[in-house]
Amino acid sequence: IHYIVIRDEDYQTAIRKLLDSKFVSTVPDRSPPFEVIEHLPDPQDVLKEINEGYKGLDQSSTTFNYPNSSPEKKEQVVLIPNSFAHIPLGPAYSTNQYDKYNNILYPLERALIESFVKAALDDEKENNITSWGESLRSWISMMVGYLDITNDVLDTCEDHPAVEWFSAQFGRGHEATSGPLDRRITKRLGSGKEMPVDMRGHPLF
Question: Are 119 and 84 within 8 A, CB to CB?
Fold first, then answer.
């Protein structure tokens, strides 16, 4: 699935352009693998429960199948309004927070972390914690773990709740209560088979 964030004012135009290009409006395909489904007593009930965890995302976005996509390798694109994704794309957006290729903007670490944090906060306010919220948390965790993202990444963010949430979950607040994030790489921590570098490639020994 490819997620594309569109400016709010261009959102309906983008939908029409995809439809005109033979993209097929559909719902996200979150079906478990066949080897899992075949052992389930009620696969549709399981799929309904999975999709329920993404209701907030699905209600705020539009999903398409690519033209002529095969059932064996179905590709989908999801259009998301930038207000839902908390990615500023108006005239005042900061160009140093994006890599730009023609008319496509790729958010850099700071912009992407801020987007995920604010979206996770929205999810908590609306639905407590859902599968969508857990996905956002896992993306933040991977970014913090694998990239050189420091605790001050959101220090200049004017959204105080977002700064506090990041601190408590992944930053200074988390380290104060739980210690530094364990970035060792192994199938089982403590097995003696840890790699000589951490998630960021820094030597451990």
Answer: yes
Mean pLDDT of 4-20: 96
Q: Are 76 and 63 in contact (CB under 8 A)?
A: yes
Distance from C-alpha of 163 to C-alpha of 121, rounded to nearest angstrom = 11
Helix (H) or strand (E) holding 6: strand 2-6
Average pLDDT over residues 97-121: 91
pLDDT at site 149: 83
* C-alpha distances out from residue 14 to 24, 41, 71, 81, 107, Å: 13, 40, 25, 10, 20
Q: Is the pTM of this model over 0.85?
A: no
User: For 16-24, what is the mean pLDDT?
Assistant: 96
Please state the φ and ψ torsions of residue 123, each to the nearest 5 degrees: -65, -40
Give the span between the Cα atoms of 203 and 197, in whole angstroms: 4
